Amino acid sequence: MSLLERQECPLKPIISSARHPRPAAVVPSGSRWPRRVAALGTAVALSVSLATAAAAAPDPKPGAAGNGLAIAKVKAGTKAERQKLMDLGLDVIDLTDTHAEVLLRGAADRAQLAGGHWQVEQVSDATDQLAAMAADRVTEARREAARRANPTSRTLAAGLPSGRVSYRTLDEAEQEMRELERGYPDKVKVFELSRKSLLGHAILGMEISSDVRADSGKPVFLTTGLHHAREWPTLEFTMEFARDVLQNYATDSHIKGLVDSSRLIVVPAVNPGGYQLSRDLTNEMKRKNCRVAAGRVPTRQQCAAASSQQLGVDLNRNYAAFWGGPGSSASTTAETHYGAAPTSEPEIAALTDLLNSRQVVVAVNNHTPDARLLRAPASPLEPVPAEVALYDGLARQLGAALGGWPTGPWPDVYYVASGVAEQEGLYANGTLGFTPELTPGHDGLERFHPRYQYVIDQYRGTGYYAGSSIRDALLIAWDAANDPRTHSILTGSAPPGIELTISKDVTVNSSPVDRNGRSVVLPSALHIQSTMRVPAGGRFEWHVLPSLRQSQQTSTLLQESWVVSCRNSAGEVQRSVRVTIGRGETKAVDMSGCPAG
């Protein structure tokens, strides 16, 4: 029995699709995880204007990472006030129903906040907390070294599949991916995404399936980490989930069934350049990628320079669908800077290429730290999805697995955003995408990557996060990707061993953006194409996304068709069939006229 079948209402919405009653994007006052208070330093001003607070708190200084960082507690008692504060492009690191916390990186941040005449009730120097966090990393590294030296010690082993007790570096994660491929050669394929990162680093992914190198047309589930560099737990969750699946394949019938009948794709580090700078504490609070100037490729030294700390593109605002809209910023120093153009950043161009070539049915893009499960719409410019009952029903199952977190569209339970992964997946491909905001309940800067024990607890749903398991949520999402109700199936016959291609050309549009004083919409033309190899028996079953695609303007599906084709030995299209198919449908396609392979 699948996890979907174990739910009381599989793939059915818990509430009416027309109602999303959760209020503004705030931490509920009765949150089940009370704040774990960390050392934020001494408050230097209370109930004063920002101008007074700025004079009292230290300004950022060049040199070691974090020097001069401060956290301002700002009164923001309404949803409109909180959104207005977000729209400034400052680094808003927390929202409650009465206040926001803003990370101040320099005099420009303070001046921008002061210009809005916000009531700032406290400004705290973050230096002490950064030092305490660095000490935690040293302690965790020592424990990890001891664990590796004595891997059989039950007192040192953690509750994770790997047994780890410390955050991975990027090199460690990539080495581990290669080790998993060597250890499970029939089930793991490590691959490089189509483009390297801005700093020229390969972005690695793993495919996991039985007979993984066969192009077999199975349904696909994708999970990613580190769109945002400082959200370290997201790399851990994706790596641990991959290892978990492989280690339990032989003994867990549920996992075995998923691996045998579908394909898992894991991309642990979407933003490798930013993560390296954050993880080695050069710029620990880095969120964005390494873009220093539009159209220019920087060096690592330029990205790491003190003058560049506020620069970069927010990769989760750079996707093409609704790019440049509300909840993103044209300012290069804003934490939600959307970049020079849709998919201007190679990291997001690479993720877009992946989506356009893999028929991803469900995607979970992991983030920290705000105890929410988000789905599209993310912008007020979007319609209610035509298939909202299916989409929202799955979202609520995931939210329940995470402990009953607020679940729904971004604006309803979090804040407004544009150019995010869920929008791209839905409007270009028909992918059902989700963002869980994980490891909540911590204060200050620690909230983005708390002590490693909290990673262990969140993965299993134990300890501090009892009843909130990202492992369970990922299994539910994978089950959903494998469920015929969430995608389409093409069946038919063709000469054994030949390659079939499915393709269509689509266009997704940005939000209206200013270009030389004119409001324009920027189209992005996409070619979506996947292949499969016909099995030896000559009969195929191909799990694909529906050809009907969500409109960006209305709550309707665009009546589009797939083109299924085959080629002869000279590479010329020999047979081509158009197929119009909806989600949950199965249709037969006659490809018997294709040339023998």
UniProtKB/TrEMBL annotation:
PROSITE patterns: PEPTIDASE_M14 (PS52035)
Transmembrane segments: none
InterPro entries listed in its UniProt record: Peptidase_M14
Gene3D superfamilies named among the record's database cross-references: Zn peptidases
Keywords: Carboxypeptidase, Hydrolase, Metalloprotease, Protease, Zinc
Annotated GO MF terms: carboxypeptidase activity
Domain of life: Bacteria
Cofactor(s) in the UniProt record: Zn(2+)
Protease is among the record's keywords: yes
Signal sequence interval, chain numbering: none
Domain Peptidase M14 residues, every copy: 166-520
Pfam family, one: Peptidase_M14
Family stated for the protein in its record: Belongs to the peptidase M14 family.
Listed name of the protein: M14 family zinc carboxypeptidase
The organism's taxonomic lineage, starting at the top: Bacteria, Bacillati, Actinomycetota, Actinomycetes, Micromonosporales
